[in-house]
Design brief:
By secondary structure, the chain is mostly helical. 80% of the residues lie in helices and 4% in strands. The N and C termini lie far apart (83 Å).
Amino acid sequence: ADSLILVTDGFSDEDIMPLVQSRVPVTSVRRVIVKHSESIEETAALFSKYWKMLIEDPRYSRIALGLPGVLLISLGILVLLQVFISFDIYVWTAIVGLIILGSYLLGKGYGIDRKISAFLSRPYRYSISDLVVGFSSTFGFILVAIGFYQAWSFVSASFGISFRIPLNIDEFMKAFPLVVGWFINKSMTLAVIGLCTIFLGRSVAYLLERDPHFWRTAALVAVFAWLWMILNEISQIIINPALPPDSLVLSIITGIAVIVASGLTTHILSRKYRKFFERETVVEGEDEGGNGRDEESS
C-alpha cells in the first residue's frame, strides 16, 4: 500500500505516528471513541507490574515462589513416602509446613540467612588455630547432641513417653522429676566431655595465637570438668529425693573452690608469662616504628 488511514482511540498518537510514518505514509487519522474504565486499566497495570516484580525480582521471588516451592516439594516427598510407609499425611504435612514456615520466619527475623551468606562468601583463611577451633567445636557439639539423644532414648523407652493429646497431667507430673533426673544422669557425661572439648580446642587456638584469652578459657575447662560431679549429685537427688543433700552441698563448695583456685592459678601464670603473650604485639609495634622511620628518612 502507498498510504494508509490510521484509526486510533486517541491514546498515545504521538508515540505511534512516527513509527508508522517511517514505513508507510499516513494520509489521515480517524479517531474512534472507546468507552473504558480508568480504574480497571489502572488495576490491570498495577497487577501486571507487581506480578512481574514477584517473578523477576530476586528479593520478592524468594518469598512468592521459593517458599511455596519448598512446601510443594516437601508435600511431594511426603506423598512419595506414603507409598512405602503408612502414616497420617495430613498431620505430617501440617508439621513439615509449620517447621519450614517457622524456620523461614525465624531466619528472616534474626537475619540468619544474611549471616550465612556473608559467612559463605567471605574469603577463607586457613590456619592451624582455625582448624583446631573448627575441629573441636564440631566434634564437641556432636558429643553433646549424642549425649542428649542417648538420654532421650533411655527416658522414652523406660517411661513410655509419647505425645498424645489430650495430655494426662497427673501422669506427666508424676513422671516429670524422674524424666528430668534420668535425662541429666544419662546425658551429662558426653555433654560435659563435649563442652570441655570445645573450650579445650579454643584454649589451644589462643595459645597458638599467643592470645591472653588462653588463661580464661583454660580455667573454664577445669570448671566444666568439675560440673560433672555437681550434675551427678543433682540427678541422684532428683531420682531419689530421700537421699541426703550432703554430697551435693560438698560438691558445690568444692566447685567454688575449684573456680577460685583455677582463677588464681591462671592469674599468677598470666602475669608470669605475660611477655610470651605480648611478644607478637611488641614485634608488630617495632615493625610499624621501623616502617615509620624508613618513611621519614626517605
